[in-house]
Amino acid sequence: MDITLHYQEKGEKEPLILLHGNGEDGSYFRHQIDYFSDRYRVIALDTRGHGKSPRGVRPFTIKQFACDLNDFFTELEISNAIILGFSDGANIAMEFALAYPDKVKALIVNGGNLNPDGVKRTTQIPIEIGYRIAKRFASKSTGAKRNAEMLGLMVNEPNIEADELRRIKAPTLVICGRNDMIRESHTKMIADHIPGAKLSIIQGNHFIANKRHAAFNKAVEDFLQTIPIGMAEERRK
To answer: Which DSSP string corresponds to the chain?
Structure first.
C-alpha cells in the first residue's frame, strides 16, 4: 500500500466500517459514529485522496479504493466486518464484497449504483459538464486536476455488471431515499440481484444518513438485529 488511510474510530466489539461518498470524508457519518459505537467498533475512513487521506500514486478508481480497504483490513488486523457504504462508498463496498467475500460479515448499500446510467440525468448532466471543463484545465491547475479526478469517478465509474451481484453471499440491506439522485428502478435492480437482500426506501433524498439520520439509523439497526452471530459465516459455506 502506497498510502495510510486516515480514520476515526469509536467503540469496541465487532467492526462496522463506514465508507463516505465522493468528495466527502468520514465526518459525513457523525450521526452514525456515536449512535452505533455502544454496540460496534465504528471505523469511519477517509478514502484515498479524500479528507485527510493522501492521494498517493495509484489509480483513482473504485476498484483501487476497494484494494485500499483490503490493505486497511490487513493493517488493523480485521478479519471481517460489517460494511456500510454511502454513494461512492456503497460502490466501493460492493466491489469489496465481490473481491473479498470472506471479509464481509454484512453489507449495507446506501445510494449506490452499478454504472453512471443509474444516476438520474438531471443530476448527471451537470456532473458531466463539470468534468469536461475540469479535464480541459487539468494540465494547468492542480485544483482542476483534482476536480477532474473526483468528477471522473461519477462520469466513468463504477462498472459493475448486475449479474456479478449474485456472487454476494453476505446478508445485505439496500437503502435509499424516496427522492434519491439514483433512479429508484436502479436501486431495486441492485436489491433484486443480491441474493436475499432487503430493500428499504425511506423519505428523503440521497443524503438520508445525514439529513434523516433517525429513520436511517433505525432501518440499519433493524437490519443488523436480524443477523445472528455466525449467520454470515454459514451462508458462505
So the answer is: --S---EEEE--SSEEEEE--TT--GGGGHHHHHHHTTTSEEEEE--TTSTTS---SS--SHHHHHHHHHHHHHHTT---EEEEEETHHHHHHHHHHHH-GGGEEEEEEES--SSGGGB-HHHHHHHHHHHHHHHHHTTT-HHHHHHHHHHHHHHH-----GGGGGG--S-EEEEEETT-SB-HHHHHHHHHHSTT-EEEEESS-TTHHHHTHHHHHHHHHHHHTT--TTHHHHHH-
Q: What is the mean pLDDT of residues 174-202?
A: 98
CA distance 114 to 187: 9
Peptide bond into 158 cis (omega under 30): yes
Task: Taking residues 166-195, report their average pLDDT.
Answer: 98
* Domain 7-115+161-236 of CATH type 3.40.50.1820: yes
Parse the chain into domains and list their residue ranges: 7-115+161-236, 116-156
Stretch 172-179: mean pLDDT = 98
pLDDT tens figures, 82-108: 999 999 999 999 999 999 999 999 999
Instruction: Give the C-alpha separation, 194 to 21, whole Å.
Output: 21
- 205-219 residue pLDDT tens: 999 999 999 999 999
Average pLDDT in the 179-200 region?
98
